[in-house]
Amino acid sequence: MPRLLNAAARRPGRSVAVLLAGVAGVAVVLAGMAFAKSFTLKVTSNVHVTNGPTSQFAVKPVNTHEAVAVGPSGFPVYTFQGETTHHIICKKTGSASTDCWAFWPPVTVSSPGSASKASGIKGKIGTFKNHGLNQVTINGQPLYYFTPDLMSHNKHQATGDELKTFGSIWHIVKASGSSSAATSTPTTSSTMTQTNPYPPGWG
Asked: At what angle do helices 2-10 and 14-34 cross, to 10 degrees?
């Protein structure tokens, strides 16, 4: 990822424009996710978890079918290795070349304490304030979506597992079963071919 960011800094023209166009498309999807009155982290079974389309950033290959945690709109969610609510690694910045949130949008809810989870998801769900948003956590780790997953519109494929970007490694949140029944914890079809999520020449 450092090479990707360095390349962006050196060549801010067309590459950044391509990136921003993609991010703008995702903003519409995220708007609906961010302002739901309630939030339930659900389980979707038989999701194709693969980092083949993003293999240039993979620490190890992944190609399996898993039950995974998904947000209200059905897209898989991820944690960032080593990150906690007191040690934020994935940061929002004003630069297209360093804005982690452009690639990994936070999972958010409209009000603190309004998140719940399905029984197949282990751990305690919570929220915390991050750049004015109520970001959802699992066992104290902030949750994120992956922009290429959102752009693919394929809720049964996850392409961000075991990727090293922005200084650490991303992990999909695995689950068991396929239940969508929610348990509250008060707190403060087919596989599609995914294109490279980064502009040409990056990485």
From this structure: 120
**pLDDT of 161 over the 90 cut:** yes
pTM assigned to the model: 0.75
**CA 71: distance to chain centroid?**
10
| Distance of alpha carbon 24 from alpha carbon 102, whole angstroms | 9
Structure tokens belonging to residue 78? 């991820």
CB 182 within 8 A of CB 40: yes
Domains of the chain: which residue ranges? 2-184
Structure tokens of 147? 């922009």
Cα–Cα nearest to 91, from 83, 103, 99, 79: 99
First-residue to last-residue Cα distance in the chain: 6
CB 107 within 8 A of CB 136: yes
